[in-house]
Task: inverse folding
């Protein structure tokens, strides 16, 4: 992954922080997927569980009810698309992979207290790309856990520890993608510190996924309370993330950010690549 891939966010939930309820059925999901692909998305990330601060956990059964019909319809409409599923439940991940998903994006991947014990054996068995994200606590407790001496050193150490655990479970090293977890148990200043020192995380050798899209820290810097009005702040972060070594940009506004990614890569002289599949 040399040229940053653009991952389009598809929240199949009524309560996600900036776009909950906008994808309200299978037909709408297929239309949104087609639009994102036309705008330059390399990967689509489907989620049936909101992970915003304070979100209620709905459980695997409800998550699958939201996820599987849309996933199957998008796969049928776009057979070549690379599909990621945003879940921390191994049962959801297993059903999604069986239905045609390619990646698993686990917000609890580096959270040993809450990681599903069945997740790593599943990833090892299926051999799929696995986004291992840094977080602490759950949606209700994470804000109180944003306490670090050096946030970059501690996030890296926790990602490294989780990677050792994944490798011991049989996950192939080239299938692991790191996500520093912007907004998950981090203050605004801690998010900015992670972005400034992305090269320190990239030096570990795993591709980095950066997901700044419309997040609170951008609103805090810009004094912009409306998530959907944070596009240009998101674009600025994404351009700097490319310079810092990001391999994947996870965003809601695919069209503008695809342009940002292409332009930043052109300035850096990076070649384009295709996203890995299973």
Result:
């Amino acid at each position: 992954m040399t040229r940053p891939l653009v991952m389009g966010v598809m929240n199949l939930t009524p309560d996600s922080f900036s776009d909950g309820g906008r994808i309200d059925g299978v037909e709408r999901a297929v239309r949104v997927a087609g639009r994102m692909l036309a705008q330059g998305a390399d990967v689509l990330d489907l989620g049936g569980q909101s992970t915003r601060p304070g979100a209620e956990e709905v459980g695997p059964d409800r998550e699958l009810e939201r996820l599987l019909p849309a996933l199957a319809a998008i796969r049928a409409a776009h057979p070549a698309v690379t599909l990621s599923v945003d879940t921390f439940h191994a049962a959801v991940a297993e059903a999604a992979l069986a239905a045609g998903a390619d990646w698993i994006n686990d917000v609890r991947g580096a959270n040993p207290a809450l990681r599903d014990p069945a997740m790593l054996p599943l990833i090892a068995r299926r051999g799929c790309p696995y986004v291992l994200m840094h977080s602490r606590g759950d949606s209700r407790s994470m804000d109180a856990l944003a306490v670090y001496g050096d946030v970059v050193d501690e996030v890296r150490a926790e990602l490294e520890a989780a990677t050792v655990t994944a490798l011991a479970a049989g996950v192939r090293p080239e299938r692991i993608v790191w996500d520093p977890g912007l907004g998950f148990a981090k203050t605004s200043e801690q998010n900015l510190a992670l972005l400034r020192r992305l090269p320190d995380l990239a030096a570990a050798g795993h591709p980095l996924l950066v997901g700044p899209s419309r997040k609170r820290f951008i609103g805090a810097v810009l004094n912009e309370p409306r998530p959907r009005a944070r596009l240009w702040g998101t674009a600025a972060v994404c351009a700097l993330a490319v310079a810092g070594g990001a391999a994947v940009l996870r965003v809601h506004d695919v069209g503008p950010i695809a342009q940002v990614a292409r332009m930043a890569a052109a300035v850096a002289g990076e070649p384009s690549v295709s996203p890995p599949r299973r």
Summary: The chain has one domain: 5-268. The chain is about 40% helix and 15% strand.
